[in-house]
Amino acid sequence: MKWNDYGWGQTYDPCTKRNPGCDGTLPAICSIDIVFAVDISCSIHPDDKERVRRFLESVVRRIPVRPPFVQVGIILFSKTVYDIAQLNSFIRRGQLLKVIKEMEMKPKECATATYLALEYAREVTFNKQNGAREGKK
């Protein structure tokens, strides 16, 4: 709660100490890097794209987004890949939620290149320079 309100609070790796504030609603989240690859191609209905946006917001609200815990990256794809957030782009949850709310879900070109998105995630997003942490899931 302190982190959300004031930008300070627990900063140690959660796997090294017991967290008495854990309510047990989520499994232990210990230093993981998550990248969402979201298909925004023209074959996806606009209502479904908004459902995905709400899903992303819901997930980000429920996880501890900060370096000792979880880092989140987001890429959108259609015919090309749109880099929305690298793993080390957003230290605070509020910043990431704002980006999710404002991200453009309409592609510039209609096609679906899932292979490009997966390649981009593997080679660019999960790269040490972009915040991927060695030895983390």
TrEMBL record:
CDD domains: vWFA_subfamily_ECM. PROSITE patterns: VWFA (PS50234). It holds the Pfam family VWA. Residues 33-137 form the VWFA domain. This is VWFA domain-containing protein.
